[in-house]
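Weekly puzzle thread! Below is a chain. First person to post its structure in token form gets bragging rights.
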Amino acid sequence: MLGEKFRFRFAKTGTLRLLSHHDLMRCTERMLRRANLPFKSTAGFHPTPRIVFALSLPLGVEGLDEVVEMEFTRELDADEVLAELNEQAPSGLRFQRVAVVPLKTTAIPRRVVYRLPLPSERVETAPARCAELMAEHKVWVERLRPNPKQLNIRPYLRALEVHENTLTLDLWVTQTGTARADELLKRLDLSDLLDAGAVIARTIVDVQDETLIADPADGPPDGPAETLPLESAALAALTRRQDEEEHATAAWGASPAGPVVE
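Winning reply:
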């Protein structure tokens, strides 16, 4: 299977979940160079490899079926490129599948699924909290970026459920936004599980051109989500809390020159 542009499905697990998205991009570039693959670069004064991740992975979250696309300067064998990348990949990063895609095709995310194992003592109450949240007409969260606001994330919630001691967050993704797993865990009174060491995993990244739509009504919302301005007191509290969280996680995956790929 020959091609110039490939779409890879990959997993980022273990301690590598603490690697930032920017460090992952640098790591991927180093892998391409060490494998001596003829990657295509962007134009301009600071050319970089034409590598596009469909959706960045939140820090600390494992990705079991992530999507990245890479372009090359000539036709290559997809299976050979897959094998060469895996030879250079660090522990915790594994390229699992590859497909040739047209040069003008771009992976646009449509839906994601997160899963979090629940301790037995939380399994009884979690389903009721999920049902309550899904029954709400509007689910407001507070965000600072790109500008401070309250955001109604209810249109992004496809399903919240508990099955076999596992919480599943099934979320729509649009070009204007989505819901975040950490926001929902706070609304479900489960964010303390992450503080205690539980690991959430993104198990599905559904992209538009790979989706067979059986029900036209089962799809992401049209247009941006409803917003409201943040009151000054709420803005100050949110800013202070986010500064504390960023300070606590500042060293996660950080390194002056990116990760070392042996």
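Puzzle host: Confirmed. Bonus trivia for everyone else. The radius of gyration is 20 Å.
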